[in-house]
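From the thread on structure requests for the teaching lab: each student submitted one protein with a one-line request. Submission from student K.M.:

"Model Membrane-bound transcription factor site-2 protease from Ridgeia piscesae, tokens only."
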Amino acid sequence: MFHPTSIAWFLGTWASLYLLDAFLKTNSTVSRRYLHFLHYSGLSVSIGQIRWYTTYFNRLLLRVGQWKPCWLQTWFTWGVYFGILAMFGAVGVLGMTLVNAVKQKPTEKQVLTPVMPGVNLPMNQISYYLLTLLVCGILHELGHAIAAVREQVRVCGFGLFVFAIYPGAYVNLYTEHLQAVSPMRQLRVYCAGVWHNFVVVLIAIAALVSLPWLLSLFYHTGNAVVITSVMEGSSVSGPRGLYVGDEVRSMSGCRVSSVTDWLICINGAMAARTSSGYCMPLPLLDKHNIALDVYTDASGTPQCCRNSSATHLCFLYHTRQASGAQRISHFSSVQKYACLPARTTTDRQPCHVQKDCFNPTVPHVCVVPSVDNSTKLLRVERRGNQALLFLGYPLDLHYAVTLSDYVPSYSFVPVHMPYIIETFCKYVISLSGALALLNVVPCYALDGQFILLALIELSLTSIVPNAEHRGSIYMLIMMFGTILLSANIVVAMWSLFVH
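Reply posted by the TA:
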């Protein structure tokens, strides 16, 4: 959630900006120069909002809209087909979502989810969210502008705005020109925004799927993972911990060639009853087993390194001991402990059971760390650096680092670039898809309002010649669409803040 200090800064900034604007407009000394500045810069300030409007791009839009007019006509006609199909699809999806909510049927994923920074959007992701929202909004409005020029509708200007913290874009079209053209030409203009949003989604999906190929010159995948961030203050941070750029290849014998493999290794370590063991020569163990002070810690786990340095760890192992009379003797397993240097011990051959350590010349045993059930000793192998020994709950190791499948091929290549591209593509898919879905809903103040009006005039004029009757049909559908979208927003907000 938002911190109270952040809310105070947010409200204070907007209040100060609004008061400063009001003061400069009313002060006799600077008001004329300030109003002159606002007029020529295109800036305007209102409560919680800043706008910038310009006619500078009108000539550029005119050139683009007149480039290959036949091709552009076909392009925006495809947009009309998409807009009509998307309108029916959006109404169907929102209708099913609302019905499921009323019947209290669980859905795999919420279709309409409000995104609120500090609530369900991590603050470290807000830059991706705001940048994507701005880019998708600009491309949406450019679609309207280019289609308008193609249909000989005058474009008055283009603008950007920031409402609270949300950025956006808008285009100002000459209304009289737009209403004078045919319904089909109107549809090309009205559907162009959502059509461009859909095309952007397809481009982002293609970029995401082909990212390994696109980055193959600078990154390689399938052999290891690279650490892109380490949580400060975690058990693996610091001079002897993990570093950004470390190339991880295995974890306690579990091969790590992708982030998915890393998760499998973590889950395997948590599911295992004990940590992996290591083969040690029995004569060497006998030297470490002299005069050990074995005691039980707070968790009830035997320990034997009371007076040793932090580099040692208590290991347990089993040996066979004969008992009984000479002719009827039998062997029983005896559990013993040894305080061993953790690093040199884990350098040896790993084992799970005693037979993994069979040696015909020197007897070996499998030594296992003496820790509680939730604690594991993990050995993280990394290229070019000494292996990291992690003693703790495996999930803590997982949350302490962020990994990427894209390992830099050269030292000068940034490790974060694939993550930035990947995250931006995912946000584009989500937000641009949401803009396309919501804008086609027949609801007031959305593109769907104008798409529906033009569609009714195009398709029902010959069937319903009375304009008032067509207007009634339009109003009924608009009321239904507005109520449907509003109900979905209420349900989504309820799920976000109550559940």
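TA comment: Residues 16 and 124 are 26 Å apart (CA to CA). The mean pLDDT is 87.
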